[in-house]
Design goal:
The chain has 356 residues and is an alpha/beta fold. 28% of the residues lie in helices and 25% in strands. It folds into 2 domains: 148 residues, Cytidine Deaminase, domain 2, CATH 3.40.140; 199 residues, Dihydrofolate Reductase, subunit A. The chain has 10 helices and 16 strands. A 9-stranded mixed beta sheet has the order 11-10-9-8-12-6-13-16-15, sandwiched between helices. A 5-stranded mixed beta sheet has the order 2-1-3-4-5, sandwiched between helices. It has a two-stranded antiparallel ribbon with strand order 7-14. Strand 4, helix 4 and strand 5 form a beta-alpha-beta unit. The structure holds NADPH dihydro-nicotinamide-adenine-dinucleotide phosphate, the ligand Nc1c(N[C@@H]2O[C@H](COP(=O)(O)O)[C@@H](O)[C@H]2O)[nH]c(=O)[nH]c1=O and zinc ion (ZN). Keywords: Hydrolase, Metal-binding, Multifunctional enzyme, NADP, Oxidoreductase, Riboflavin biosynthesis, Zinc.
């Protein structure tokens, strides 16, 4: 009976940790958005979450928020990710926990980061702390999906996103659309949702044709949040300098063939790719080097299909509008067994796929 009760408390507290951590989405990356609570006799006496990138970790903030520090020795610290054991931008949290005299720690999941990977838990146990690992593991893995993907697969978490007509086209026939502007298939509500999504990821990418046809901005305008790094494929260096994607409101990275070597300008920089090698693995390597742990791919069809065919994607978010086009740019195709959720977004159908 006591055991069942205790498990419920563990889950409840871990769920609070995840809730606190979620506020960091779009701010803490590439650091994980950790949440922590300090519990004394079943009551939360301190809470904290990871500060924006470079700032304090969740454990530090949770401990700092406890007014009566004398209670720490009899308290349990709940934290969604294993406390760190290394000097990064901040000193090790495991040392702080020991120093503050906390003797019970409940951890959601182990940190796969090579500098931690069990060393934080070992450090706590060596100092006499009782450490329990593995509470709400599935929820924690989902919460830390960007961080875990980056650490484990050495590439960003990849989200594919597009809007398609009711009969499966990404854009109508050119005769039916204006030049240099997107053809809006999805509803305003979906467009606002997309801007929230943009603010949650570190980067956004489109192919050459999309820049030529749509002249997109790829910024966060209909939501609050940071602009992601704009990544553009332009192997042949054909895109004009005046394209909106090169505006100075956000940083842009252009993937261009090594033999082209254009000059960086404004907030736009060029990175050389080897045209004799596959582009997507090179892209993943470049983003990994830059510590970009998530990216949203917004089209077009050719670019999206390459990610799908290579299995280089983690999630796909598809809006299906109400209008039929009959002809145009055919939407990419995804394996149907990967559908996990269907819902409505304004007038559109929103289908989510997970590549697991
Ligand atoms: N409804 C929606 O959600 C969206 C609709 N769209 C629409 O889709 C259309 C564009 O789609 P699409 O024509 O498929 O074009 P893309 O935007 O996918 O661009 C394709 C081009 O990008 C370059 N490229 C992409 N991947 C690679 C690679 N691995 N190696 C080298 N070059 C690469 C190539 O350019 P090159 O050969 O010139 O070097 C290729 O032809 C537009 O009309 C746009 O309006 C676009 C985005 C979203
Ligand atoms: N047409 C279409 C989309 N198009 C995507 O949005 C880009 C335009 O971005 P911006 O210039 O920042 O508003 C465009 O180039 C393409 O990648 N997205 C959607 O959610 N629904 C739509 O119907
Ligand atoms: Zn830490």
């Amino acid at each position: 009976m006591f055991y069942i009760c205790k498990v419920k408390i563990h889950e409840k507290m871990m769920s609070r940790c995840l809730q606190l951590g979620k506020n960091g989405l779009g701010n803490t990356a590439p650091n994980p958005m950790v949440g922590a609570v300090v519990v004394h006799q079943g009551r939360i006496i301190g809470e904290g979450a990871t500060s924006p990138f470079g700032g304090a970790h969740a454990e530090v903030n949770a401990i700092a928020s406890v007014t009566d520090k004398s209670l720490l020795a009899e308290s349990t610290l709940y934290v969604a990710l294993e406390p760190c054991s290394h000097y990064g931008k901040t000193p090790p949290c495991a040392d702080l926990i020991v120093r503050e005299g906390i003797t019970r720690v409940v951890v959601g999941i182990k940190d796969p980061h090579s500098k931690v990977a069990g060393k934080g838990i070992a450090r706590l146990r060596e100092a006499g702390c009782e450490v329990f690992v593995g509470v709400l593991e599935t929820e924690c893995r989902d919460h830390f999906k960007r961080f875990l993907c980056f650490q484990e697969k050495k590439r960003p978490y990849i989200i594919l996103k597009w809007a398609q007509s009711s009969d499966g086209f990404l854009a109508p026939d050119p005769s039916l659309r204006k030049a240099d502007a997107p053809y809006w298939i999805s509803s305003p509500a979906s467009q606002r949702l997309v801007h929230q999504w943009r603010a949650q990821e570190m980067a956004i990418l489109v192919g050459t044709r999309t820049v030529m046809d749509d002249d997109p901005s790829l910024t966060v305008r209909h939501a609050v949040g940071k602009h992601p790094l704009r990544v553009v494929i332009d192997v042949e260096h054909k895109l004009p300098k005046h394209a909106s994607v090169f505006s100075d409101v956000a940083d842009t990275l252009v993937l261009v063939a090594m033999d082209k070597q254009p000059q960086d300008f404004g907030r736009t920089s060029f990175t050389g790719i080897n045209r004799n090698m596959e582009l997507l693995p090179q892209l993943c390597g470049i983003l990994y080097e830059k510590q970009i742990n998530s990216i949203i791919i917004e089209g077009g069809a050719y670019t999206l299909q390459q990610f799908i065919d290579r299995g280089l994607w983690d999630e796909a978010r598809i809006f299906t509008g109400t209008r039929a086009f009959e002809k145009g740019v055919t939407a990419p195709s995804l394996p149907q067994d990967k559908i996990v959720l269907e819902s409505k977004s304004g007038a559109d159908r929103l289908t989510l796929y997970y590549n697991v």
